[in-house]
Amino acid sequence: MGCGQSLNAIDVKEDIKEQRKKSNQELGKNLLNKNLKEEDKESTNKIKEPLIKDENSHPITNKINLEPLTEEKKKEKEREIRKDNGVRKKKEKEENKIKKELEESERRKKIKEYVNEKRKEFEEYERRKNQIIKFESAKKEEDKEKEKIKRKIELLERKEIEKEKEKKNKMINLYLLLKNLEAVKKDIEKLRENIHQIFDSYRDNSNEGQDINKIKQEIIAKVLDKIIEYLDLDDNNDSKGIIKKILKDSYEEKGNIYLFKDYLDVILNSVNNFYNIDKNNKDRIINYIINYFDSKKGLIETLLSRYQKVDFIDYEEFGKLIKENNIAMDETAMEYLIFRMKINEPRKAKMKFKQFNLKIFIKFFDENILKEVI
Asked: For residue 353, which of 312, 323, 325, 322 has the smallest C-alpha distance?
């Protein structure tokens, strides 16, 4: 019995030993397969080399025959595996870290490039905007300058127009003054003598040191009174203000008293003395006027129709009438006609400074025409 038990014990030991051997062989196969897979994985992109046959390898599979592992070797192998795994994980971790750093570096680089690009776009936008602002500002300044120049030109044109208008009015008023002086049947030399006496009175030394403006105003006032007296104008006549302006403008134009006196002499010398014209010249002028108007047969009907109840006509209306009917007579004849139209008829209302007697104008037409129309 004791021998049978020993055999059983030996068998059990042998079984255990056989099981351990199988277990170690299985474990070794698993580890070998795992290592082979990792090696295959790492050498995917490498050129595969032929396996070197080991003296202990199988002649067909070229795999190392594994002997059963002991506990110590098993633990050592596990430690190596863990070590390899740790190294691998550390390597993977470092690779991941490097990868992340590279990705972060690339990301930052792209962000920097994007920021630089946007900054350049913004700088270009600001540059263009400033150019536009500068251009618009320059254009506004240019427009302002143009508008300023335009206003200056318009102002100068208005001033020039006003100046020309004033000059024209001055010439018209001076012309009308001559026509009014001519219409008065008096000696013009008497008026000249009275005006000279006014200037001579200011040659006295007692006037030295006096205000020149005061002297000017006194002389103009006294000359004006002599002209009003010569024309025999009443208070209702509008000529006083007009004549005063003529005298004042003339003085301002000449600049001093003595040149003003000489200018008044020029005006008085321009007065036509039609009252003293000889009969032959007078008849010649009148016949010329009658013959001239004989060619204007339609004008008499127009005048009688338009001015049937009108005795006097203003200078502006008379000028318009002359222009509309293309009346262009000899200058002396025209001046004589106006002289006759400025004579105030006895016992009738007096004409004003700018008026003409239209009835006298009509009388110069042919008598037969007048009879037919009337």
From this structure: 312
Local mean pLDDT, 10-residue blocks, the chain (374 residues): 48 60 60 56 48 45 54 83 83 86 88 89 88 87 88 88 89 93 93 93 64 87 93 74 91 88 93 91 89 80 84 92 88 93 84 88 61 36
**Residue 198 and residue 131 share a domain:** no
Residue that the structure tokens 């004849």 belong to: 333
Euclidean distance between CA atoms 329 and 358, whole angstroms: 17
pLDDT score for 233: 77
Selection from 132, 263, 242, 265 nearest residue 191 by Cα: 265
Point out the domain boundary residue: 234, 256, 271.
271
What values do phi and psi take at 212, rounded to 5? Answer: -65, -35
Per-position DSSP letters for 194-207, written without gaps between them: HHHHHHHGGGSGGG
Residue 22: which domain range? 2-35+55-93
Q: Judging by beta carbons within 10 Å of its beta carbon (0-12, 13-18, 19+), is residue 123 exposed, middle or buried?
A: exposed
DSSP percent split of the chain into helix, strand, coil, nearest 5: 75, 0, 20
From the list 47, 64, 46, the residue with the least C-alpha distance to 55 is 64
pLDDT of residue 82: 82
Residue 169 CB neighbours (<10 A): 13
**Are 223 and 198 a contacting pair, CB within 8 Å?**
yes
Looking at 252, 271, 290, the residue that finishes a domain is 271
- CA-wise closest residue to 180 among 267, 307, 284, 283: 267
pTM to 2 decimal places: 0.60
Q: Could you tell me if 235 and 267 lie in one domain?
A: yes
Counted domains in the chain: 4
CA–CA distances in Å: residue 36 to residues 30, 59, 124: 10, 18, 62
